[in-house]
Amino acid sequence: MNMRIANQMKLLIINPNSSKSVTDNLEEILPVPPQSHLSFYTGPSDAPPEIDGPETSKKSCETCLRDIKEKELYKHYDGYLVCCYSDHPLIYELRKLTGKPILGIFQASVTYAMTRSPQKFGILTSTKSWEPILDEAVKAFFGGVDVPLFTGTVASNVNVLGLSDPENYKKLVKKANKVVDDGAKTILLGCAGLSGLEGKLMESIPGVMIVDSVKLGVELLYSLVRMES
């Protein structure tokens, strides 16, 4: 991992699970902002292969935090992006180690969605277990109050590693249309495994903004680092 690139902003893109295929996809599809360098991190082998709720989030945080401390990665970058679509505890633990900007893709996407007010937004996530968790996370993000612009979370219940199958993609589009039927004009892709699909989905569902939360997270993190430099 090349950590010191002269005269370039150094950003670490963190996949806090142990599925290297997710990291490989991000490395392939993420645009690199000007005068910056993206490095990619995958959780260690004892991290969960998939994060599906509070227990695996906690395990993910513990294993990644230990590994990041051992490798002293918190010392070598200008900003850090945690690529789990949740209020992931690793964000807050890393902030205890460094004063550099640390951002989660959930926080980045919800912040962006509010700039599109008065248009409503909803979240398209992976599995059913995330629906109440993300609904509550949005509410907590705004201080525990209901958010009239938020239409709710809808699970695709589609294996994101199998989206090359046309039938699986059709199921994903059907669930995305459910978000639209609920009143959303902006759909936040609530899973790092869905990254890279925003263009294809916008072709399938005209008139709706589909937000790649990881790409947006990189852009927002880049701006935060510039503001604080």
Automatic annotation (TrEMBL):
GO terms for molecular function: amino-acid racemase activity. Gene3D superfamilies: 3.40.50.12500. Belongs to the HyuE racemase family. This is Protein DCG1.
